[in-house]
Amino acid sequence: MFTTYEEALQWIHSRLRLGMKPGLQRMEWMMEKLGFPERRIKSVHIGGTNGKGSTVTFLRSILQEAGYSVGTFTSPYFEQFNERISLNGIPVKDEDIVRLANDIYPLAEELENTDLGGPTEFEIITAMAFQYFGHIHPADVVLFEVGLGGRYDSTNIIYPILSIITSIGLDHTAILGDTYEKIASEKAGIIKPGVSLITGVKQEEALTVIKEKALEKKAPVYQLGNEFSISGHRSLIRGEYFNLNTVYGEFPDLETGMSGKHQTENAALAVMAAELLNQYYSFLIEAEHIRSGLKKAYWPGRFEIISDDPLIIIDGAHNEEGTMALSAELAARFSDKRINLVFAALSDKKLGKMIANLDSVADKIAFTEFNFPRAAVAEELYEISTSRKKHFQKDWKHLLENEVKEIEKDSILVITGSLYFLSEAKPYLLKLLDK
């Protein structure tokens, strides 16, 4: 058993060696041993390719403004591991992690000796979240973010009061399939009988799959562009402005605290969720809670300005759709500036299309690498790029030092790619800027 936080964390991370093992049987086995904590939790389930974390953040912020205690389970973490299990935006304490790891450890050991095999890192962390919110610190509602896919994701043993599918993109194709229809089928696995589904999915072929599954499950569907819609969008210096109409009411002059046109869509999903919680589940959420919740919402690494002078932005554009959104946002906001990009990514992504999107907007692009099992090699990223002004540097700290020194008045520095990379780069950048 574990006596220190470091011991608990080391054990949890050691489970990475098992990789990904899709399926729900190990989770169901552990939940039975723990007395089914997941059944004690009032939950909202959020899946999709992009926008999950931002949608969770907007909805959490709205609910907190209305006075509710809100648990969240998200991945990956950005600044510290404990963020993955948070209450009202505050990560659980180190001693909670030790206690939870000690609850799960004997079950993991016992599972090792069964035909099911030992649980993965993500399954252990998910089980810890269920145990925390089910038995240790209940909340009014818990927002569970899907890890990968949906149908066989370890979070998919919950029976939520609402389901949300934010978007569909061609990510993790080796696991989820290589077409929008196949990926939509996996994401639609979170749809439960009679449970309302909110979605921002745009591709017709993906929507068809999702709606067929919802019809089969008799789950009402609230689709962005149909049952609720955005109008009057414009970008602010920090954040976005838009109007929102839903089947239940109008919300003019909304503002988000997070920047990027796509954030209006994530915010709209959260508002629609708040409306359904208000209409059908006795949550008392007023218009002012929605308005202030959207404006106060903050999620690190999403088009985050970490310095105004010099202008430095970090953005977790970790797949094709993410780099497309980032490129569009940079072109729209900073057409009068030279754009210097730093990029590091995981090797299992669609790197060609991601880099092509970034090449299209960057005046200068630099590639680097970081210490992570699936990290892409800097020189390989460099070779993929067709930019006329490109270079690579394996040592990302040395690269960032040089890039910060070389920022000119008419240029901006954008660090992007894997969220795992940004979680290391952000604190280092802040130290550089302090100097």
Structure description:
By secondary structure, the chain is α/β, with parallel strands linked by helices. It has 2 domains: 5-296, Mur-like, catalytic domain (UDP-N-acetylmuramoyl-L-alanine:D-glutamate ligase); 304-434, Protein-Tyrosine Phosphatase, Chain A (Alpha-Beta Complex), CATH 3.90.190.20. It has helices at residues 5-14, 25-33, 52-65, 94-112, 121-136, 173-176, 180-187, 204-216, 261-280, 287-296, 320-333, 351-359, 378-384, 396-405, 419-434; strands at 43-47, 70-73, 85-87, 90-91, 141-145, 162-165, 197-199, 221-223, 228-235, 240-246, 249-256, 304-308, 311-315, 338-344, 364-369, 390-395, 411-417. Strands 4-3-2-5-1-6-7-8 form an 8-stranded mixed sheet, sandwiched between helices. The chain has a 6-stranded mixed sheet with strand order 12-13-17-14-15-16, sandwiched between helices. Helix 2 (25-33) packs parallel to helix 5 and helix 3 packs across helix 10. The longest helix has 20 residues, at 261-280. It is globular.
